[in-house]
Automatic annotation (TrEMBL):
Database matches in InterPro entries: Cyt_b561_bac/Ni-Hgenase (IPR011577), Di-haem_cyt_TM (IPR016174), Hydrogenase_cytochrome (IPR051542), Ni-dep_Hydgase_cyt-B (IPR000516)
Predominant place of localization: membrane
Any one GO biological process: respiratory electron transport chain
Keyword Transmembrane helix: yes
Source superkingdom: Bacteria
PANTHER family on file: NI/FE-HYDROGENASE 1 B-TYPE CYTOCHROME SUBUNIT (PTHR30485), NI_FE-HYDROGENASE 1 B-TYPE CYTOCHROME SUBUNIT-RELATED (PTHR30485:SF0)
Molecular function, one GO term: iron ion binding
Residues of the Cytochrome b561 bacterial/Ni-hydrogenase domain: 26-229
Family recorded in the similarity comment: Belongs to the HupC/HyaC/HydC family.
Organism the protein comes from: Thermoanaerobaculum aquaticum
Name assigned to this protein: Ni/Fe-hydrogenase, b-type cytochrome subunit
Keywords of this entry: Cell membrane, Electron transport, Heme, Iron, Membrane, Metal-binding, Transmembrane, Transmembrane helix, Transport
Gene Ontology CC annotations of this record: plasma membrane
Source species taxonomy: Bacteria, Pseudomonadati, Acidobacteriota, Thermoanaerobaculia, Thermoanaerobaculales
Length: 245
């Protein structure tokens, strides 16, 4: 079956501009790098964390020749520090990046943010196309803040606190050791660390679903944007993130 593509007519572009998509550079390279590094780190941390909590392999022989758990822990801790640096980099770029690096952040003291949150929520509930957001909409930004930023900090503090137990009185123990007694002991801290990890799983499921839903609904190149940085919009669409300026 042959598909014929109608040739572009410049006169039609002028007469009916709303039919055609335009592109705009939205996500700068630091945002895109953060996104993919974060995705890899969370995947590795979750899988290695599951193994540390419930080891699946018990190789025969002496520990010095079969230290699978030691390697898994090393991978987990190394990835955790990469996650920490990447996390701090994203916070830095929140202030240094373009307007879209801050889009969707819950500016609860601004009336416009609450209006945008209500509008986006009702659009999703009605399964209808609403206003265009070239960055994050208010609802997406709120979910991102709760599930990525807040959970990220929770995982960092509980994780470093557990890590500090290997060197009592050391640097990390002095810095974040207070987290363990605050949460009720080592076992309770470990339980919270696991609980927060599953929060990232919930976020990942919601994130993938919404990405595909928005991509099909708005046809804005939402998926490819995290590679190219560019999103698409049509004439007449309104960039509802400009109020952040």
């Amino acid at each position: 079956m042959t598909t014929y593509v109608e040739p572009l007519d410049p006169n039609d572009v002028v007469a009916r501009p709303h039919r055609y998509f335009r592109r705009k550079y939205v996500w700068e390279w630091p945002i895109r790098v953060f996104h993919w590094v974060n995705a890899v780190c969370l995947t590795v941390l979750f899988l290695t964390g599951l193994y540390i909590a419930a080891p699946l392999l018990a190789p025969a022989g002496e520990p010095y020749g079969n230290f699978v758990m030691a390697w898994v822990r090393k991978i987990h801790f190394t990835t955790a520090f990469i996650f920490l640096v990447n996390f701090l980099w994203r916070i830095y770029w929140f202030w240094m990046g373009n307007n879209y690096a801050r889009s969707g952040f819950p500016f609860i003291w601004r009336r416009q943010w609450w209006k945008d949150l209500w509008r986006q929520t009702t659009d999703y509930l009605k399964l209808q196309k609403g206003h265009v957001h070239l960055g994050h909409n208010a609802l997406g930004g709120l979910v991102y803040t709760v599930f990525v930023i807040a959970l990220g900090w929770a995982q960092i503090f509980t994780g470093l606190a557990l890590y500090s137990e290997s060197n009592p009185g050391g640097f990390w123990d002095k810095l974040v050791g207070w987290v363990i007694p605050l949460l009720g002991g080592s076992m309770a801290t470990r339980t919270w660390h696991h609980f927060f990890a599953w929060g990232f799983v919930v976020f990942a499921i919601l994130h993938v679903y919404i990405v595909f839903y928005d991509g099909l609904q708005y046809k804005n190149g939402l998926i490819s944007a995290m590679i190219s940085g560019e999103k698409f919009y049509q004439e007449g669409d309104i960039d509802h993130d400009t109020w952040l300026s």
